[in-house]
Amino acid sequence: MDESNTIKEFSYVGIGRIVMIALNAIFYLVLAVLIEPEIFGKISVIVALASTFSIISLFGFNLSLQVYLAKNNLRVVEGIITLFIITTTAASLILLVIDQIAALLCASLSFYIMSQSYFLGQKQYKKFMIDSILKSVAFFILPLIFYFPFGISGIIIGMAISNFVGSLPFYRHLKIRNLVGVRKYFKVLLHNFGVNAGNFLPIMIDKLVIVSIFGFFIVGVYQFNLQVLIALSVLSGILGQYLISEESRGKRHRKLSLLVVLVSVVVTIVAIVITPILVPIFYPKYVDGIQSLQIMLLAIIPKAIGTIFKSKQLARESTKIGYSAIVTIGTLLILIVFLGQLYGLIGLAIAVLATISANTLFFYILDRMSRQKTIL
Known about the structure:
The protein has 16 helices and no strands. By secondary structure, it is mainly alpha-helical. The two termini are 29 Å apart.
């Protein structure tokens, strides 16, 4: 592939991700203006509950789907989709007993994540971009419209509808097929689940732990800071989604990866400098979290670096990469409880930074081990 095609395809993924993250971030920032931190915390806990069930039910199928579509292994793809239907249905039914609205959001999240992975695995980068934009616009508008007549429930329902709308292209692929083709790949699927769990469960389970110890106000400020971190980590997210498909086809993009890391360093420095200026002006309710936000923003850099090593291991069908979930979840939960009780919001921010750094170190060590094994 020549460099112009690489830039073009990466730009499609980039535009889709940037619009999605930007509109998501703006939505949460607008919401933070409209409601008190305690209510913001309550919404975050409901979303965290739905997302936790979604990630567990997905079992890493989104990553596996992207890899095996890129490798044109259709028998495995059919098995993955069949397993996805079974696990998502089961998770939604279980959650239905606990919280009906959270169950609706859980199902919608799972469908949308799989839909996005299907586009990427097929190298349909332009369709990925269009779908991301349409879903993001719906996500920005619908929850705010439903909030005024229905309150918190309306916000969650609006989120769910937007995800279902974004999943429309994937519905035609939902067929129950034979699972024979996927059996011998179970170990790879298990470790891909570990990667998914390591990526997403910590930023879902953390709210459930924090609210039980510190209450909804701290959850609200913590989630506000985390949302800023997610928004400013947009480049590493774009790079990761692009590299998985490209690395699976044996293509390397070292210059692009280096550029993303350098830009991430610049973004981090600028964000840390301007945070004390902007937060008191636009979000005076969240000024208690300024120092913790500055600390948390340092995680942008290791997050970008870790994305590169993680993508390589996913493409190699690593059967060790899933242990990252243990590293990430274990580190975060232990540090949240320990540092949070000692230092409050600053302790929680240090916990996030240390966890992302530990995860990046794990991926780096795994990459070194893989390369040494290849040489031998």
